[in-house]
């Protein structure tokens, strides 16, 4: 029966069915997660339809909310770009929070100083370059330990992350503190000196940088020799050595690129939105983006869609916390449910293919 | 500086180190069991947090600390059951599911706490203390080490018990082969799935117990996100310990002292940001890793799902 179907079906028909299956693999988990999340809301005595309606309205269907959603996308996209490079190369860079925060602090310390004697454009670009360098530097120890001695990078990057978050706080409190404020924070970069806004909106230009970076990273990983080398290392390190690749050097390069992009995310968030870093500020985007990158199967284009969806959820959820009385942490539950359902659907799909022998 | 050297201060410091270290010890021992069996249990943070929540709620409504600890362990096990189903039964990626579980239970516990208590944080009474007769009379150390919640002694006994279990029993051998060469275990007629499932459930119980201790004894209340990376520190302890529970104990002590120093320095009125002290244990672990990098050993099959017949 299956053999017959395979031979008789026209190729276009097959392609269409494959596309439909791919869409279903994403859509079914999303719907299941929303339903399961709704059941949790019901148990907690909240009206799920009212909540989802409010989140969608606030995050997507009002101009103000939509602008916030786009603004939130830039750090998340840059972190996602960094994670895609690392994960495709088979390296678990889970140190995103420390890399992001250190880059943000250094940016916020540097920008107000530079702006005094440099033109605005140059200041912004210099800040971003320094932020990338700082974050990349923070990944050097895990990178070398992994490359030279094979020490598990999950642990070392996590440790460096904790270390980086505390160190960022130390920098704010002891070294870069604005003496004129009571709460410890860095000197604020004036609004007119931040990243330019797009047209008449509150969205800053960082979104364009982030979108360009994600596309470039995707092309780099899929269309260049360097990207292919990284993928080989990720798929099979032993084979990569046999193929004559310098795995140690590629590992260190991967870590540096990954951390650098995450650091760029920190710089853009400061130069575009905040202009300063307060002590103990830590948005903890690092681990949040990991599930999104997996949902997108390390595909740069798909990640843009997921990050958009998630940003809207975050913005709507933050507002719903005040208005509907569901804490914004509910968004975390939703992401976890989505991840689990996606994994299960993928597993069932895999089993089905194995049975049909496809 | 004088305040640092008084007897009462030292006692408080060591007492605080034990209180801060025991949840890490329990988490580290739990993680060690999982890692031995070849499961990298990143979801342990979620297990601790859910254990802290269920443990607190059980103790709060029943008034019994014993029930609190029991339900803390059961709560951790419930989270572990999800990991068993997805990662061991279905063979899904352990790191992804682990992060998902951690995020999900961070959100869920915060949500449940908000629905029940809104923005209030009710306190429990003082947790019961077993003073070990005789030993607690030793100056400075007596009150600091031998006048604690029974869970503390249990955790230390567990170090010895697990050391024996790993070294001298079939269970230890099975765990070890599930992590080193699962196919060999399978060929010997022992179910890899069951061995690993048991290991992860044990991890969940210990992590949940650690969380419950943190909430009910350490803090006396439940705050969302209260574990604050303790589970991740547990993973680090297990990895550095190279399969030996004694080293988990040493590591937990090191972290406990650094955490206790944070509060102690504030009490002593020394004006440096707590972040500096918080960096110490992590900096120390990184230093140890850099120096002893080539000696760190992990089970070969760690993180890999076992599918019978796969190469």
What key phrases describe this protein's structure?
heterodimer, A: 358 residues, mainly alpha, globular, B: mainly alpha, ABC transporter involved in vitamin B12 uptake, BtuC, two-stranded antiparallel sheet
How does this model look, in words?
The complex is a heterodimer of chains A (358) and B (311). Chain A has helices at 2-8, 11-43, 48-59, 63-88, 96-114, 120-138, 140-149, 153-175, 206-223, 225-235, 237-242, 247-274, 285-295, 300-323, 330-356. Chain A has 358 residues and is mainly α. Chain A has a domain at 68-304. Mean pLDDT of chain A is 87; it is low at 1-9. With 311 residues, chain B is an all-alpha fold. Chain B has one domain (2-119, 146-295): Orthogonal Bundle (ABC transporter involved in vitamin B12 uptake, BtuC). Chain B contains 12 helices and 2 strands. Chain B has helices spanning 7-36, 44-62, 65-89, 94-117, 141-145, 150-168, 170-180, 182-187, 192-219, 230-241, 245-267, 274-291, and strands at 130-131, 147-148. The interface between A and B is large, with 46 and 47 residues.
User: What fraction of residues of chain A sit in β-strands?
Assistant: under 5%
Structural class call of chain A reads mainly alpha
Main sheet attributes: strand count, strand direction, barrel closure of chain B: 2 strands, antiparallel
* Estimated share of beta-strand residues of chain B: under 5%
Most extensive interface: pair and counts? A-B, 46 and 47 residues
Tell the overall outline of chain A: globular
Distance between the termini of chain A: 13 Å
Helix and strand string of chain A, N-terminal first? HHHHHHHHHHHHHHH
Tally of helical segments of chain A: 15
CATH class of chain B: Mainly Alpha
CATH topology of chain B: ABC transporter involved in vitamin B12 uptake, BtuC
Could you describe the largest sheet of chain A, including whether it forms a barrel? none
DSSP, total strands of chain B: 2
The stretches of 5 or more residues of chain B where confidence is low (pLDDT under 50) are: none
Main structural class of chain B: mainly alpha
Total domains of chain B: 1
Strand arrangement, major sheet of chain B: 1-2
What fraction, in percent, of the residue positions of chain B are helical? over 70%
Low-confidence parts of chain A, pLDDT < 50 over ≥5 residues?
1-9
CATH level-two architecture of chain B:
Orthogonal Bundle
Taking the alpha carbons of the first and last residues of chain B, their distance comes to 63 Å
């Amino acid at each position: 029966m299956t053999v017959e179907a395979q031979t008789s079906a026209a190729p276009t028909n097959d392609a269409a069915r494959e596309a439909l299956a791919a869409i279903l693999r994403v859509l079914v988990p999303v719907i299941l997660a929303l339903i399961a999340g709704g059941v949790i809301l019901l148990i907690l005595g909240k009206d799920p339809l009212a909540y989802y309606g409010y989140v969608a309205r606030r995050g997507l269907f009002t101009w103000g909310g939509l602008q916030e959603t786009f603004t939130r996308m830039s750090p998340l996209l840059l972190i996602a770009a960094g994670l895609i490079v690392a994960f495709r190369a088979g390296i678990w860079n889970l140190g995103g929070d420390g890399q992001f925060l250190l880059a943000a602090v250094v940016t916020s310390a540097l920008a107000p100083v530079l702006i005094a004697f440099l033109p605005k454009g140059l200041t912004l670009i210099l800040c971003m370059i320094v932020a990338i360098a700082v974050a990349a530097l923070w990944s050097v120890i895990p990178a070398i330990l992994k490359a030279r001695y094979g020490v598990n990078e999950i642990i070392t990057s996590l440790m460096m992350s904790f270390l980086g978050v505390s160190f960022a706080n130390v920098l704010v409190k002891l070294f870069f503190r604005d003496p004129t404020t009571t709460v410890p924070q860095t000197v604020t970069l004036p609004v007119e000196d931040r990243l330019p806004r797009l047209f008449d909106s509150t969205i800053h230009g960082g979104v364009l940088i982030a979108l360009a970076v994600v596309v470039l990273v995707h092309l780099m990983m899929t269309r260049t020799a360097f990207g292919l080398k990284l993928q080989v290392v990720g798929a099979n390190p032993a084979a990569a050595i046999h193929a004559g690749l310098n795995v140690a050097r590629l590992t260190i390069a991967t870590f540096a690129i990954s951390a650098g992009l995450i650091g760029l995310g920190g710089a853009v968030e400061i130069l575009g939105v905040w202009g300063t870093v307060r002590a103990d500020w830590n948005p903890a985007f690092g681990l949040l983006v990991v599930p999104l990158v997996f949902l997108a199967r390390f595909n740069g284009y798909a990640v843009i869609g997921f990050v958009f969806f998630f940003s809207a959820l975050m913005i709507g959820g933050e507002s719903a916390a005040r208005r509907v009385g569901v804490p914004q942490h509910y968004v975390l539950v939703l992401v976890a449910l989505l991840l689990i359902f996606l994994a299960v659907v993928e597993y069932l799909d895999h089993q089905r293919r194995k049975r049909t022998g496809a | 500086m004088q305040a640092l050297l008084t007897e009462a201060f030292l006692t408080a410091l060591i007492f605080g180190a034990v209180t801060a270290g025991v949840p890490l010890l329990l988490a580290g021992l739990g993680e060690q069991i999982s890692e031995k069996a070849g499961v990298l249990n990143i979801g342990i943070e979620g297990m601790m947090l859910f254990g802290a929540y269920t443990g607190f709620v059980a103790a709060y409504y029943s008034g019994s600390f014993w029930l609190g600890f029991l339900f803390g362990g059961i709560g951790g096990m419930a989270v572990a059951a999800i990991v068993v189903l997805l990662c061991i039964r279905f063979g899904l990626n352990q790191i992804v599911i682990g992060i998902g579980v951690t995020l999900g239970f961070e959100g869920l516990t915060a949500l449940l706490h908000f629905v029940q208590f809104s923005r209030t944080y009710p306190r429990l009474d003082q947790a019961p203390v077993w003073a070990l007769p005789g030993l607690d009379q030793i100056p400075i150390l007596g009150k600091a080490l031998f006048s604690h919640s029974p869970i503390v002694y249990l955790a230390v006994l567990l170090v010895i018990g697990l050391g024996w279990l790993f070294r001298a029993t079939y269970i230890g051998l099975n765990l070890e082969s599930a992590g080193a060469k699962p196919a060999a275990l399978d060929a010997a007629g022992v179910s890899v799935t069951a061995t690993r499932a048991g290991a992860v459930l044990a991890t969940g119980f210990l992590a949940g117990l650690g969380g419950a201790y943190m909430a009910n004894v350490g803090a006396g209340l439940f705050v969302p996100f209260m574990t604050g990376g303790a589970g991740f520190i547990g993973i680090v302890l297990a990895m550095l310990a190279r399969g030996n529970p004694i080293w988990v104990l040493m590591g937990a002590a090191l972290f406990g002292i650094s955490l206790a120093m944070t509060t102690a320095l504030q009490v002593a009125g020394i004006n440096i940001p707590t972040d500096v002290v918080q960096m110490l244990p992590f900096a120390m672990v990184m230093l140890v890793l850099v120096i002893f990098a080539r000696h760190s050993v992990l089970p070969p099959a760690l993180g890999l799902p076992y599918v019978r017949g796969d190469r």
